[in-house]
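hey so i finaly got around to running the thing on GNAT family N-acetyltransferase from Fictibacillus arsenicus. pasting the sequence first so u can double check i didnt mess up the copy paste, my clipboard has been acting weird all day
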Amino acid sequence: MKIVKAKNTDLENIVLLDKEMIGTDRRKVEIEEAIGQSRCLLVFEESELAGFLIYHTSFFECCFISLIMIKPSFQRRGIASSLLSHMADISSTEKLFSSTNQSNDAMHKVFEANGFTKSGFIDNLDEGDPEIIYFIGKRGEG
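ok and heres what it spat out for the 3d tokens, dont ask me to read them lol
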């Protein structure tokens, strides 16, 4: 497994993976901006793109992972955990946050297995499915 920062030449492959997962390429501009600002990480398994992560640092001056996407054929192999762990190691802020819908049981397990703790929730983003916020301190101090 290899984790690297995305380059402009990776854009189309990332967008294809994202489109495979959500059925549209509506996040292409967001992905392109993240690549341009060095806020997109890629994970490769045997030279194949297995997933990506996008983050920013505008969440109350803390690092926030806004998107983790793992290709279906690579899910349940620890790839999301590797991305989270890597992000916790390289985070430019002492606090690292992320979130997932209340209904996303698999992602809750990934966060908890990686030392993240629940930090709150936001209603009214997705009707009837609150967004659960997770937190970990730098070097695993959660």
